[in-house]
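To the team - zinc ion complex, inputs and output below.
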Amino acid sequence: MTEALYARLPVFLQNAACYWYGHKEAAVRLGPAFERYLQEMQESEKWSRGQICAYQDEKVRNLVSYAYHNVPFYHEQMRERRLLPQDIRGTSDLAKLPILTKEDVRANADRLLSTNARRHRLLPRHTSGTTGKCLELYVDPSAVAMQWAMWWRHRMRFGLRLGTRHVNFTGKPVVPQAQSAPPYWRWNLPMHQALINMQHLTPAKIAPIVEFLDREAFEFYSGYPSIIHALVSAAKHAGLKLHCPPRVITTGAENILANQRADIEEFTGAILTDQWGMTEACANASQCRKMVYHEDFEFGVIERQEARRVDGVIEGSLLCTGFATPDFPLIRYEPGDIGIWAAGDARCECGLESPSLLGIMGRMDDYVITPEGSRIMRFDYVFKHTVNVRECQVVQDQIGEIRLRIVRRPPYSNADERLLEAEIRKWISPTLRVRFEYVTEIERESNGKFRAVKSLLSIDRPAGRSSDVSCDGASNQRVC
Ligand SMILES: [Zn+2]
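Output:
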């Protein structure tokens, strides 16, 4: 009802509503706690590996002890395993505890809440579960301030300053879909943002948006990579250029595909840097100047579960233990994301000693199963040479076949279809059947995210190998 009412307001009142929302959010996100965390984190970022390990070990010990004494779910889980708080001395002992799936959280939400929790103080959060069913959980307000401090620390690695005006490209319908004349943007002044929503990034409406971006000459853009990519595609389609491009673009919240990155960088000439986080606020990793993801270790610990190893690079699911919400603790929580990391005790050339990841890819349930039995999540390389594909979603409805839902870019022809088939045979499977479906747009999920690979198969997800956490780096799961 609020959204319907908002959509009927005149533009100046919509801006006032955005101001009010921004003012309310800024109090939580950018208040005194944020400033303190930011200052502390800019210092701790320079810590040595030893300091980082000692810090995380202590945080894990305290969290598990608190959970054992105050959180019914964990008390029971640990008693079942005959574990006492002193059995968990640090990150290397986390593997003694069970993995927490989204389904576990959904089924045990009440028992995951500590008996000390003042529920009204906690912030309710919603995210999607593996079954598509909504997952409800709680986050401590300090976790939100900490997330924003981490996100700003990330931006500051690229020379951005607090208070810099920028554009946020969002999935939220801040400019109602039905609006057919500019301005296709709104202002969130307390957070120094212009807001542009994805629904208007079309060739028909792009000219005034590009003109606005040039006029305001924002220093940076932020948002979902697929939405910023939509801006680039629409502008290129309309033959437009950005004369005052941003210096930096920060992305997050969904996988950034290689072709999206290439298109955005080519069109804007900006540095594109990504970070990985989650609504559940229990882990975060952000890229450094070498484009390696560094674990934001102050916020939580990320365990890596090795699934397979190719040419010295390891791939597997990530398990997160968050430090910031002890009253609703998520310990060894499996968000369903897959990480890629280097074998051995690799140190990043940037000089930061926090544990790193080379990449973070698809959700665990977004993969295609080939007739050969492989589970394939990355299709970027298939589209490397197909310049006439604007956007593509790979859908699997049945074993043995995939559907490529394609938004064509002229002069797309049969030759492109043949090329795609050949690439799939080459990279994915020699026997997988490919069906082509041509669409004018690919709808986003209800949360605004673009899913590059979508599986509609009703099968269980694969179980990851149990985590092997080591302090010496020999197992390559974690280096501390
Ligand atoms: Zn680095």
